[in-house]
TrEMBL record:
Gene3D superfamilies: 6.10.30.10. Pfam families: OB_ChsH2_C, zf-ChsH2. PANTHER family: BLR3430 PROTEIN. The lineage of its organism: Bacteria, Pseudomonadati, Pseudomonadota, Alphaproteobacteria, Rhodobacterales. It comes from Mameliella alba. It comes from the Bacteria. Residues 57-127 form the ChsH2 C-terminal OB-fold domain. This is DNA-binding protein. Residues 20-55 form the ChsH2 rubredoxin-like zinc ribbon domain.
Amino acid sequence: MNRHADFPVPTKNALNAPYWDALGRGQLAYQHCEACGHAWLPARSECPHCLSPEHGWEMATGRGKLISWVVYHRAFNPAFQDRVPYNVAVVQLDEGPRMISNIVGLDPEHPVADQLSIDQPLQLVIRREHDVAIPCFAKVAA
Ligand SMILES: [Zn+2]
């Protein structure tokens, strides 16, 4: 099987292009409502809080905290079959948006549950896979 061809690369479009372009430059961008100030990810055409279509893009500091996580023991997509077990985490950026990501830099010799805890401070780590910049997070000291 050609894993490269099967790697699920994101679909870039006019709406989310600022997000993927920023990651390519080493930055994490999020949307910000000009009407109510709400901030969110992933990209959408109107504010999920007040439905205003007036929004802009802001650059995140890359700092956040762990909200929740699970460990996949069975690959969701065959392209990730050789990565199991792997974690999928909900991360909340300091600026407010929550995003689905992976926690990297954990010790593979120890259970994930022993290494992560809710509210764990995290820092953005951008990894390149198949020419796509992927936002991951690593633990940092509180
Ligand atoms: Zn709004």
